[in-house]
Amino acid sequence: MMIENEMGIPAFRNEWQKASIGIVFTYGLLYNGYEKFFKKHGLTSQQYNILRILNDKHPEPVSTSYLREMMLDKMSDASRLVNRLSSKGLVDVSQNPSDKRLVNIVLSDKGVRTCQQVLQDIHNLDAYLKGISEDEAKQLTDLLFKVRESIRDVEETNAQKESQRNK
Fold it and tell me: What does the alpha-carbon distance between residue 131 and residue 137 come to, in Å, rounded to a whole number?
């Protein structure tokens, strides 16, 4: 089914708008599927993202700022997510001994077990893209990289224009 029919939009301004709307629409579908998957494990996708980052560094502690840097969703509130994971017993939070303003965050034993359980099932998320071939998936990955580069270029240009206006 074409995006026009799925969304009830009779026409798009151009193919760039159509592609942009298609990405956002598809993101919503994929995100909802991911949320259903992680809910089975008592998590949200954002909470799992934090656990994944901590698991990659385990047993080394990390700071909230490091988590923010590494998160997929840069708009997420890392501190709030860490607090939720701490209340679930999935992470341990302690004051950084060398800088009292910072905290050290590390996976708890329960967090390690939860990550292991999720990792046993995570391959099930691949099913959302099984409608395309592996070669098409690679093409899509390459195209999405180009889109991200384009977005970064536009953001940089806009920031430069804004800086010049403020002078």
Answer: 10
- State whether 66 and 144 are in the same domain: no
User: Can you give the pTM of this predicted structure?
Assistant: 0.82
DSSP output for 121-150:
HGGGGGGGGTTS-HHHHHHHHHHHHHHHHH
7, part of any domain: no
For the chain, the domain total comes to 2
In this prediction, the residues of the chain whose per-residue pLDDT falls under 70 are 1
pLDDT recorded at residue 137: 96
**Based on the domain organization, do 53 and 77 belong to the same domain?**
yes
| Residue 54 to residues 3, 59, 60, 81, 144, Cα–Cα distance (Å) | 38, 8, 8, 13, 26
Range of the domain at 166: 133-167
**How many whole angstroms separate alpha carbon 79 and alpha carbon 145?**
29
